[in-house]
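Query structure, 206 tokens:
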């Protein structure tokens, strides 16, 4: 189980996993779990590396650790079993745990009311939410997968972890500010009402 997000809409924890299934829905009492395979073309070991909920919680997106890093879109409740579309992201994720000694989960997908954003520590891309088409992209660094973290607020300010800082971009993917941190950043999440930025990384939580 590589990624997990909670949905207030259906009161379930949506989990990105892999092997015989790709998505699981776990109730908050931890008593019932349902599994789905929305990416019909997937193989047994197509693990989920990216996962995001829409702010309206009417849909979700998952990215797979395989060639092209395809992204599947789903609607719910009731639609987790089939993808409404599958589109390549080109982020370059491949399955790390072939010998069960690696990890596939990456904090690199976030959705606003307008766009879907994906990130691999190197390339930040803005995608059309309705069909997965890449609208624009920028190169944040020259080193993918060594750091990460991605979130977006309702005004389409994007927060991306880059080395030992959080870089803030607007919806045109123009850099607007930089927040320094003490070490390599791995995860970013915005707090209630988007007023606080939480981050964790190598030896720190802030």
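Result returned for the query:
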């Amino acid at each position: 189980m590589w990624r997990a997000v909670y949905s207030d809409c259906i009161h379930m924890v949506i989990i990105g996993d892999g092997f015989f299934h790709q998505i699981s829905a776990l109730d908050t009492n931890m008593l019932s779990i349902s599994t789905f395979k929305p990416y019909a073309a997937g193989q047994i070991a197509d693990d989920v590396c990216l996962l995001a909920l829409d702010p309206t919680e009417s849909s979700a997106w998952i990215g797979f650790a395989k060639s092209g890093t395809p992204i599947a879109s789903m609607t719910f409740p009731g639609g987790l079993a089939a993808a409404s579309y599958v589109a390549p992201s080109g982020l370059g994720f491949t399955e790390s745990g072939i010998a069960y000694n690696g990890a596939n989960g990456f904090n690199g997908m976030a959705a606003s009311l307008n766009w879907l954003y994906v990130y691999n520590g190197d390339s930040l891309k803005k995608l059309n939410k309705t069909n997965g088409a890449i609208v624009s992209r920028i190169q944040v660094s020259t080193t993918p997968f060594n750091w990460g973290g991605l979130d977006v607020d309702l005004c389409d300010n994007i927060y991306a972890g880059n080395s030992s800082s959080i870089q803030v971009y607007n919806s045109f993917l123009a850099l607007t500010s930089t927040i320094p941190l003490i070490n390599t950043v791995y995860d970013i999440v915005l707090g209630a009402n988007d007023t606080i930025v939480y981050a964790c990384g190598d030896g720190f939580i802030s």
